[in-house]
Amino acid sequence: MKPILSIIVPIYNAEKYIEVFAESVLNNNHDNLELLLINDGSTDCSLEIMNRLAQKDSRVKIHTIKNSGPANARNIGIEKSLGKYIMFLDSDDTLVQETFMWSLNYIEETEIDFMIFAFQIINVNGSRDFYYGHKDAIIDKGNFKQHFSTLYKENLLNQVWGKIYSAKIIKDNNIKFLDYKYGEDRLFVLETIGKCESIEISDRCLYYYYVRPEASLVTKFYDKKLEVCNLIDTKIHQLQNSYGDFSSKELAEINYMYLKSILSCETNLFLSSCTYSFAKKISELKLILTHSQVVDALKRSEKYGFVMDLSLSIIKSKNVILNYLLAKIIVKSSNLMPTFFIKVKHPQAREINTESTKEYELE
């Protein structure tokens, strides 16, 4: 019997976490799902642990590939998947145990193109946790453009996980993850959304994303970040081809999100993993400040609040030294005051106590 749901997990040297995330998937009685573990050339004991899981549970399927990054691993997972629907899971995260009790029953009864559910960020270092979600809603081609910027600002479109996808839409439209180390999730989500007739939002918190002390791809320097941010902004405006023109309010909010990403392109140069010389950082800042897409967006900027307005006034000045200092200050502040930084970056995020996690699980 074909599975209804395929859960795709790229794995690279994740021996510490495999059994934990696998337990969150396999601890249920549903036979109509498959757990696709894509071993991305792991050099630790990951494959051994995966094999052990596969021997115990026939729902576990393993595919080993040469190390090529999570984008390619997920593309292989899509090709190998048999389910009517697809979910993605990162190898060091977990799903709420009741996820399948709810989602499998729901998708068996409902023909959906795309579903987004809430998630919780859990800081293992003891910092405050945050809940990201949106009230229940059904979005179709007629009202999508009224919801897009809100979902984008609420940080619900940036990750490939925390969602259920129609496999038919992905495969019929040959939607793939592009080979980037930043933003490839968002590009995949945006490409998929552009092909959907209906999108459902659930405020159920089904996904736990763990922020760990070890460096991740999101906190590492990436030399193509400006290229990706510009591509994401272009892709967002192309959604108007499917759903109609955004209102001036929506366009203003989309422009705000783009300018936030440009600010992150500046701070990207001052992450500890960036090995650029002072001269190279100055050169890269000049490139950001004079890029035509950035200049056009700055012309359309509005009043966004004191912190953002101050940052944008410095960017608009095109003074490289001021922008150099701004980026360094932001990076330093985010390290010293991570909770404050998250509140500024994502004001819609709900700060919660770790002990209250169960409040957001299914009843």
DSSP helix fraction: 40-55%
What about the largest sheet?
11 strands, mixed
Mean pLDDT: 89
Question: Tally the helices: what do you get?
Answer: 15
Structural class given helices, strands, pairing? alpha/beta
Share of β-strand residues: 15-25%
Shape: globular
Q: Secondary-structure blueprint of this entry?
A:
Blueprint: E1 5-11, H1 18-26, E2 33-40, H2 46-56, E3 60-65, H3 70-80, E4 85-88, E5 94-95, H4 99-109, E6 114-123, E7 129-132, E8 137-140, H5 144-153, E9 163-166, H6 167-172, H7 184-193, E10 198-211, H8 225-238, H9 240-243, H10 248-268, H11 278-290, H12 292-299, H13 306-317, H14 320-336, H15 338-345, E11 350-352
Parallel strand pairs: 1-2, 1-4, 2-3, 6-10
Antiparallel strand pairs: 4-9, 5-10, 6-7, 6-9, 7-11, 8-10
Helix pairs in contact: 5-10, 7-8, 8-10, 10-14, 11-14, 13-14, 14-15
How would you describe what is shown here?
The protein has 363 residues and is an alpha/beta fold. 45% of the residues lie in helices and 18% in strands.
Tags for this model:
alpha/beta, eleven-stranded mixed sheet, disordered C terminus, single chain, 363 residues, 45% helix, globular, 15 helices
Brief characterization of the structure:
Helix content is 45%, strand content 18%. The protein is an alpha/beta fold. Strands 1, 2, 3, 4, 5, 6, 7, 8, 9, 10 and 11 form an 11-stranded mixed β-sheet that branches.
